[in-house]
From TrEMBL:
InterPro entries for this protein: LipidA_mod_glycosyltrf_83
UniProt xrefs under PANTHER family: MANNOSYLTRANSFERASE YKCB-RELATED, MEMBRANE PROTEIN
Gene Ontology cellular component list: plasma membrane
GO molecular function: pentosyltransferase activity
Subcellular localization, as worded in the UniProt entry: Cell membrane
Keywords, sorted A to Z: Cell membrane, Glycosyltransferase, Membrane, Transferase, Transmembrane, Transmembrane helix
Organism the protein comes from: Haloterrigena salifodinae
Keyword Ion transport: no
GO biological process, one term: lipid biosynthetic process
Residue spans crossing the bilayer: 20-39, 45-64, 76-100, 106-126, 138-160, 212-236, 256-279, 291-307, 313-334, 346-366, 424-441, 453-476, 482-499, 506-526
Membrane topology according to the record: Multi-pass membrane protein
Name used for this protein in its record: Uncharacterized protein
Principal localisation: membrane
Amino acid sequence: MGRNPVGRLSELRPLRLDTVAAIGGLLIALVLFPLRFFASQVYLNTVPVVLGTACILYLVRLYYQQQATDDIRLTLPSRVTMALPTAVFLGLAALVVLAVHQGARTISFFVLASVVGALVVGQICFASDRDFNARLLLFQIVLFALVVRGTALYVTPGFIGIDVWTHMGLTEQIVSQGRVGAISHDKHYASPFYHLLVTASSMLFDVSLRSALYLTLGLVMPISVLLVYAGGNLLVSQRWATLAAALYALASHVSMWGLHLIPTSMGLVFFLAMLYALLRVMRIEYTTRDFLLLLLSSIAVILTHQVSTFIMLVLLLAAFVAQLVFEIGPLGLTRLDASVFRTKKPVNLLGLVVFNVGLTIFVWSLTPYRDDSFLETVLRYFSETVKESAGFLNIASGSSGDAAGAAEAATTLLDEIIPYVNEFGFLILLGATFVGCLYIVHRRRAEQSVFTLLLATAFMLVFVMGFPMFGIHSFIPNRWFAFLYAPMAILGAIGLRTLDRGLAPALVVAVLLLFTLVYPGAMLFATESNIDNPVFEDHQEQLAYTESELAAVGSIGEMTGSPDGDELRRDQGLYTDHPYQTLFSRTGAYPSTDIATVPAGGTADHNYVVYRTTAANEAVYFNNADGQGRIEQATVDRLCRPDQATVYTNGDVTMCTPSPATE
């Protein structure tokens, strides 16, 4: 007859930090749960549930670990394990054929990619120790990331995304004038690594700027997931470090920056290099070469991208706080168990932090931005946001569109489900991350490297979820997720290893199957993974264009002479949908371009408009009568009025101007 569960729980020494943290996390989840009744937001509705579930699983794991006598885990037969890599390679080949044949990454592409991703993750989770082959799995992971992203870059004319058009324009200016000073008017003048890389590669390989971008950064982005493996392998065994790399490679925002190749993408690569170097310095008896890699990686981030720089400083701050925790030694955290993590004295990072903060302030103070320095502009913008928009649960403030209007329009079941589909993969990984955090706060397991990951994740979550709850969006939270996924992937792998070693076999299988069968598809179907051709095309805008849409921009630019804003009257601005309007302004075809105002059930009242047939059946943004952007499908007669003349059309794009008879 089994022992009393209460008696078993009483033996768990409730003063252990991990036990206290699990109980405290469960209480926090219960306190946060009622917030859903005061504001409608996907994180408010889901994070308390995820946190509570993770804490319960960890407490259950503690209970079962007390009873465990063997390390029992379900494994695949050797014959199946040996056959799965072949299935993965065939699936990847099929993905290439499918994308090229259909001319885009369609729903069938993402379904097949989800299956292939599940086969990769399944090998990691369920291969026996004898059959586990880390090198072969890492090759599959990198090849998967390369195929899924590379096919999108290959079949899409032009570029994918919005900002990339601006950056390629800046690169063209450097090429045409032969000097970096050509972009001295822009904030990227002080952070030119991206533009210099594309320029140099174009000259070296004698290819177009587009090809140079794809042959350099486009290839490096999938390969950079190996840095997550290398960092994770400093903490856990090859199996779980490989899983961390797979979780990161599949992550939606990571995929997005592999498609939308801008300085953020390059900053992310340097950030991963710095994270690996930081973990290496804290985990081994490092040499001067190791610390030099850490220093150079941090400098490279500063000279590549401003937002990436700030995120890097948050990581360094987390590492420094972790150093202070272990030097001061509160709560007995210096009593370590060398059998769990290889331990060493905390690394003194004060000099590195001071150097990077100082260099950042110096560079930002010299960076031109909106008729002032970047540093002064950002500080002023942040202070204005706090004064004007900040407020508890003021979630709508600072959003790209009007959240209230969007909420009113969201009347169908699909409208309500899509936000949860977009965040489901993140929430699954967040749950594993919570478990990993609970595991490492045990006094005998805590050390500087893992505490750095914990604190970095906590700080970043404040920026991506905490501040937006108070209406503060100044830090561009959408840019943080890909960086956040790196420590989350490693902590998530630690969390899954923890559950694998402590839960009952049935629960272990259920958790690992969730990550195997659901996580890849959840990430691939999220909006950020398919910006080139959205899965939910009626609800998400497409950030890529057809050949005819690109040709129209060039033709309209030539026809109008690409006039500067100073050359135009106020009524000569060009109006079209968003995001198409960004293509005109960022390529210089017609700089004075804005989002058309199309009242509900009415027509636009602009003199110069451009309509594309995409607006009739896909998600594009127009302003309503109050000037608030919302997704609206419109036919050509709602932009081009009968009293206007059609001066350009190619079947897919039409430009209308005032008729000579009415002028």
